[in-house]
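Example 500.
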Amino acid sequence: MSSPARITHLIAGSPWEGTAERTSPVYNPATGEQTGVLDLASKAVIDEVVANAKTSWVANWQNASLTKRTQVLFAFRELLNARKDEIGALITAEHGKVLSDAIGEVTRGLEVAEFACGIPHLLKGGFSENVSTKVDVYSIRQSLGVVAVISPFNFPAMVPLWFVPIAIACGNAVIIKPSEKDPSAVNAVATLWKEAGLPDGILNVVHGDKEAVDALLDNPDVRAVSFVGSTPIAKYVYEKGTANGKRVQALGGAKNHMLVLPDADLDLAADAAVNAGFGSAGERCMAISALVAVEPVADPLIEKIKDRMGKLVTGDGTRGTDMGPLVTREHRDKVASYLDVEEGSGAEVLVDGREADFDADGDGFFLAPSLIDKVAPGMPQYDDEIFGPVLSVVRVASYDEGLKLINDSPFGNGTAIFTNDGGAARRFQNEVEVGMVGINVPIPVPMAYFSFGGWKASLFGDSHAHGMEGVHFFTRGKVVTSRWLDPSHGGLNLGFPQNV
Ligand code: NAD
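Predicted structure in complex with nicotinamide-adenine-dinucleotide:
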């Protein structure tokens, strides 16, 4: 077994040369082996990085032409596309998701970089000539300065890519703090930005935990924060950041429901439930975790789902398996604990993933796909965001009962309806209180040119990620009213300006 490699910050384009006061272990979840030792940034490190980023922003990026910025973005897009397999392998080694899925998340991130390549068009302002006699008005959007991105473990490349290309395209300097559980993908992507010609200091990677996050939230030169993670931390980041005068978008946790009506194509619904329930070991914020079956659909649907689950292979994600391990041993044990259903609750464990065999060597953090029937509100299996390969079936008597269940949930990230009835689907898209809705589509993740974000406890703040909302989040508007002097100026007038 080789000794764990040091993983450190990338500041102004170079690895940090200091000595960390605190470090954190990084594991390969498929083997259980510790593969890395991660430096955790102190407040002093964060403050130094923010100061350097601000200096570089003023000198190199705030007024860099759109042509220059676009050249960097196109070069970055090409490099990321060329290296996506390499980055996918880093993700699998630290997160555990299977290689095809890891490369898939890089590809979804790449789409945001492609969207950001259109920044000259996206930042075009408006111009009105002669709003008053010989007076013109125009609107422009300018960068904010230094902005921070704080990302979760479950999409180590895609979630940072939701924000970083747009923030950079909009002319900001960025500090990204990835999850301490799988930090290497962000370091690899950051080196591509340098190769693409981004000036040093415009993108900096700092690793860390609460101390680093608090330091970013407290530093007055950090103008905006994009956070993605669990709901309690999202709420904390939103409240602290906005109290400190920052612009904050904080995307939180989820409990996504899939409503299956009796007229649905049950094979399509069963495929969707299995793919969306167990892909990436259920560690997706858009995973389906509650399957809401409108009776009499539950029994036949469950049979089809069990049949499909029986064919899935769980194991090391580098071996062509269907599903990999969970991210840490602690998380695996917590998820597995939901399979201990309380006696007398009525819930029934139909498939127990603790009893499976795994295609892996070593002592990885595995739990195979699991299915619990007759779950209901009030049970931890329903109320908690489990964030693992545990699919719960909730039986309801009608569409209205299913809709009420979904709308009563404190979360509102994603949801889906499966039906062949266009009228029911249309009612659902109108009535459901959730930010992203699928109709016969289980994981309705919006394309880069739309915006991603949930409602209720799944997002704190007004702006969703990427698309035009991303461009607006990372810029601020200015409106200029201009008159070039000519001999006809009107002289003194203390009244409120009126257009003539
Ligand atoms: P997490 O909340 O534990 O961590 C997210 C980030 O916050 C990490 O960078 C972490 O270092 C930092 N952090 C952790 N504890 C902190 C503290 N006490 N103070 C300040 N910062 C802290 O989330 P996670 O476990 O990495 O990711 C999984 C969660 O993220 C799930 O709840 C999932 O639903 C959510 N998620 C949501 C979306 C979305 O779009 N809504 C997308 C991906 C993940």
